[in-house]
Amino acid sequence: MDTNETKLKDFLVIAKKATYATSGEGGERRLQDGTKEFVFKKGLYTYRDRYHGSNPFIGQEIVFNNKKPIWGMNYCGRVINKTIDSHEVYSFLKKALQKVTKHNPYRGPRISSYGQWKYSCTVKGSIGAFSGQEKIFWDKKKAYELLFHGGVIK
Fold first, then answer.
1. What is the DSSP string of the chain?
2. pLDDT, tens digit, 9 for 90 and up, residues 122-154
3. Which of 97, 74, 80 shows the shortest CA–CA distance to 25?
4. DUF5680 domain location, by residue (predicted)?
5. pTM surpassing 0.85?
């Protein structure tokens, strides 16, 4: 892993923990067109997460270095089990996303659980080009799913 990749992963972890994973729905800035946005800056790096909707939702994360886009990820997710309160699903999702690591800097950790809740995040590829899926189960029943993909921008 080169120095730039290490710096990117370290920054992604800090940025993701400082945005949706901490404040969740309602902590974002609302843009004029209805887009919801989180922005985090540190040094020359800027992280921008913009999304639309809540269930389902679709969004895009972009990392800029010195105002130049260097990395991005698109995602689309939804609560699929209508018998489970979506607020509870998203509350557990925030807990899982707070555990993001530089070894898996895309969403949350590979596996996390709390009581009857279980989170999983599977990824194919590397930080340069990847795709993956995030799932949440409640009492062994799939409650939520999200697909994502992205990579380095040149």
1. --HHHHHHHHHHHHHHHHTHHHH-TTSSEEPTTS-EEEEEEETTEEEEEEEEESSSEEEEEEEEETTEEEEEEEEEEEE--TTS-HHHHHHHHHHHHTT-BTTB-SSS-SEEEETTEEEEEEEEEETTEEEEEEEEEETTEEEEEEEEEEEE--
2. 999 999 999 999 999 999 999 999 999 999 999
3. 97
4. 49-153
5. yes
